[in-house]
Structure formats: C-alpha cells, structure tokens
Model the fold of this input.
Amino acid sequence: MQAWQVHEIGEPSEAMRLAEVERPTPGEGQVLLKVRAANINFPDALMCRGQYQVRPPLPFTPGVEICGETEDGRRVIANPVLPYGGMAEYAVADAAALLPAPESLDDAEVAALHVGYQTGWFALHRRAHLEAGETLLVHAAAGGVGSAAVQLGKAAGATVIGVVGGADKAVVARELGCDVVIDRRTQDVIAAVKEATGGRGADVIYDPVGGDAYTQSTKVVAFEGRIVVVGFASGTIPSPALNHALVKNYSILGLHWGLYATKNPKLILDCHEQLTELAARGVVKPLVSERVPLSGGAAAVQRLADGVTTGRVVVLPSLDAAQTASTEHGVAV
Done:
C-alpha cells in the first residue's frame, strides 16, 4: 500500500515521503481499516516538527482522524493508532473506540467531524458551560477547530464573535454564521470586541492560538467569563498573570480532549451521539475547503502548518485512483 512516512523531524513538506510499504498488522483488540478519508489536523504538522506531546517512533505515518471502512463494509470514525496513521491507504485502530459514521455526511465530512467537533463540544459545554444568550468569542474562527466552535456556539444559542486573519477568512466566518467578524490584520481586536459587546466583553473565549490571541482574550473577557485554552497554533505558549485573573474575576480553563479516551470514554460516546443528531438536522456540517488525493498529502499538511488554509483539508486516497483512471482514458482531471 501507499503511505506517507516521516523518517526525520522537520517541516512537513520536507519530512514526509510517500512510499510503498506493507499493510500494517493489527494487534490484539485492533482492526485494519481501509482509509476512505483522512482529515489533516495541526498535531500532524507538530508531530512532523517533533513539537507535539505525542512523539511516535520514526518512521511514522501522520493522520490522527479518519473515515474508515471495516472488512464488512461499514463506514466508521477512527483515530488511528500511531505509528500507523491515517495518511495511507490502510490504517490500524482500536476496535473498541470505533464510532459509527453519520449517514448525513460524506466521507470527507465524516473524517472532519470527530476531533475538532469533540474538542469544541467539550470546551464549550463540559469545561465552560456555555449558556444560550451568552457571547462566545472564537479565535481563528475560519480554521478547522475554530469553524467547529462557531457552529457549536450557534447551535447552543450564543452570539458568536469570530476573529480571523484576512479578508478571505472573514467571508468564510460570516458564512459559518458568526454574528460579528473581526479581521485582526486590519482591526483592533480589543476595541472591536468591546464595541460589539457594549464594553461588557465575551462570556466564553475559545482559544486554539495562544500568543497575542490569549493576551487579547484577557483584555476582553467579561466578568465571570471563561477562557478555554485548547492549543497554541501561534507557536507561543502564554504565561498568564494570575493576579489579572483574580482582579477581573475570570477563569482560565485548559482542555486536553484526548485524556477523555482513558479518563471517561463514555463522555466521548455521549458527545458523538449529540454531534450525529446535530449533523442529521444540518445544524453542524464540517467545512471541508479542500479534498486532495493522497499524493498531495505532504503539501496539504504544510499549507495547514503555514496557516493559509480555511476549514478542513481532507485527503482522499480514492482520488489518486480516479485521476490515474482518467489519465489513462485521456481525460484531464
């Protein structure tokens, strides 16, 4: 089978190599899945760079989230067991952790439903207890995890303010349903949030960025507001001044969603049931901006790492076969 492998740490476009390898052999309690679609996540880029908390042995195949197909033809959502990640034609996953794929979504959307939406749901509901009528501020609102948080915030009845970087991303954020969109490249984020909230600030702030975004959050969080830290896409990990949290009476909450798989896996199942229902109603629908063939995987991970993508970029191994067949028949694709 074909699979992307990382043999040495570095930038994704340089570290990842497409190779012909043997299909992985499932261990006890594991299953072999045909990869129908693999969603690219920021941790894939961080693992290539050696900067993620999980460091699989070299060589490894990136890809932590897939829509897979079982031997009996069922579509499932899975988190592949590294080093046999999802950016390949086949991957290995724990049988007990497989989730049924919502029928209302196609393969690419299914692959993008799990990590980002589970992270958003746990952050907004489990950690921050977002209530209808509150104001939610989402940093990187047009990105993968940000777009999920926007949709989940609207589904919860919140007023959603989205912060983005660039005019194109501002258009995407508006289409996602943001009530207010702030372009950090041309606007003063702090002033714009205060204006939009009448000086009160945001009740819940969803921060997958860190760095300057976190600093801005502390300036615009409302009384008894909650800042949920879910990642550091900026590359800068903040050092919060706890006296500031005390003086302004706000909470700083951390979320490491992956811990629930071992600490309380039933919550993941409960969340998936709710996400499936929301998807069936059309309330949430992953924003898949690009569907790329397996051969374009490294370039796609690099674009995500460089921060130039919107929504989700999903790898579809079947597109390679389709392109080959079309080329053989003299049809350009």
Observations:
- Confidence is low (pLDDT under 50) at residues 324-333.
- The chain is about 35% helix and 25% strand.
